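Protein in question reproduced for absentees:

***
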Amino acid sequence: MKGKWILVVLCTVAMLAVAADKVEKAPVAGKDGWVSMFDGKTLNGWKANERPENWNVEDGTITGKGERSHLFWMTEQCGNCEFRAEAKLNHGGNSGMYFRAKFMNAWPEGYEAQVNNSHKDPKRTGSLYNFVNVFEQLVPDDTWWTQHIIADGNHIIIKVNGKAVVDYIDEKKSYMSGHLALQQHDPGSKVAYRNLMYRKLPAKN
């Protein structure tokens, strides 16, 4: 009987190892064109469109809480690019990772990769908001996960923990260039981001 339990444990460990191999490995800043967007200590390079007091650095993360605000990365704009971050969101929270977005008050014009696991809005994490909507909860509350956006011409891919959940061709080419930004949605939401990374992709002919 003891031998069977050992076999079960070993099989479980093996399954977990296989699952871990499917999770996207974190890129290294300065390698393969990847750029770190956050120094872990300050909001240098970032600018809020409204209510800047709602964004802080806590325990090496960019944290948003309070009323609506969007925090824009001002260092470089995204034409063709990859945008990757690890996110953690409270129960009932709502946030988003914007790309090719216009710096403006209110809700920015641009694409949004949804960050929402249990908010009343049914469009969940991984959605390309209002273009391709994911209604399944992919991520538990209060846990870290990775969201990775690839914007290559009008081809948009969104990966959650290394798995592509959106693979979309925007025939209208709705947004082709603009800022990367983080969203603080409402007073009931608290979101944290870390390991924010950017990579420029070649221009399409």
In short: The longest helix spans residues 2-22. The chain has one helix and 13 strands. Residues 27-200 form a domain with the Jelly Rolls fold (CATH 2.60.120.560).
